[in-house]
Amino acid sequence: MTRLSVNLNKIALLRNSRASGLPSVTHAATVALGAGARGITVHPRPDARHVREGDVHDLAALLEGYPQAEFNIEGNPFHNLLPISLAVRPAQCTLVPDEAGALTSSFGWQLPARASELEPVIARLRAAGIRVSLFMDPLPETMRLARELGADRIELYTEAYARHPDDRAVLGRYVESAQAARAAGLGVNAGHDLNLANIGRFVAAAAPVEEVSIGHALIGDALEVGLAAAVQAYAEAIAQANQARPPSGTSGEPR
């Protein structure tokens, strides 16, 4: 079953606008986990504009009380991600090639161009017992290269799908990429701009998807219905998509 990991960056961004410490990132994590989230994701950036290093440590301590949940730390391994992750040792590190001042992640790793940089980083994280996922564009031919570098999973960067959810050719590229990743021995995660309107179709078509990481849209929905209700709605959408998934070895989208 696909795990829902809730990204709390937007909670931290709001918290940072005042000195009161509200809203609490750890409290938001507790609410999300109580409502059915199976993981927590954060993406600390060098400028600490949202999640800060202290939040990462606080969340790691909190998650010790939730053995069913996984902690996923995202970020660029050539910025501040590596020392934080090696100190905390989350279940998973998702390596993202974003620029230091980027508003958000906007592209996946270029392989084989950056393979020599990534390989020792991946080896170091895996030696520490941390699962490694690479943030990747939907390019089937690059999946084998990701596995050869030592990655355990890839996270498909889903913005193109989210912009054109009814385009069968676009979704088809993601389905092919997910199949290529699994054929290479990689698990498949997904994230970026997934929301209640498009997540079900993606999860069913690209199945099996190990994890989806959702922050921006989910927190936006939470402003209307509350955080617990928003998490429950996403968890239900994912569960329905898993129940609708096609038989093993087939695609949910016709070619």
Strand neighbour order, sheet with most strands: 1-2-3-4-5-6-7-8
Backbone CA Rg:
17 Å
CATH topology group = TIM Barrel
Number of separate helices? 11
Low-confidence stretches: none
Strand content range: 15-25%
Beta strands, count: 8
Q: Which descriptor suits the 3D outline?
A: globular
The share of residues in helices is 40-55%
Assembly of the depicted chains:
single chain
Q: Please identify the top-level CATH class.
A: Alpha Beta
Main sheet specs: 8 strands, parallel, barrel
Average of per-residue pLDDT values: 93
Short summary of the structure?
The chain is an alpha/beta fold and 255 residues long. The protein has helices at residues 9-15, 25-34, 53-63, 81-88, 115-127, 143-148, 159-163, 168-183, 199-206, 216-225, 227-243; strands spanning 3-7, 39-42, 70-75, 92-95, 131-136, 153-157, 187-191, 211-214.
Explain what you see.
The chain is an alpha/beta fold and 255 residues long. It has one domain (3-243): Alpha-Beta Barrel (TIM Barrel), CATH 3.20.20. 44% of the residues lie in helices and 15% in strands. It has 11 helices and 8 strands. It has an 8-stranded parallel beta barrel, surrounded by 6 helices. Helix 3 links the parallel strand 2 and strand 3 (70-75). The two termini are 25 Å apart. The model has no long low-confidence stretch (mean pLDDT 93).
Core attributes:
255 residues, TIM Barrel, alpha/beta, 8-stranded parallel beta barrel, 44% helix, single chain
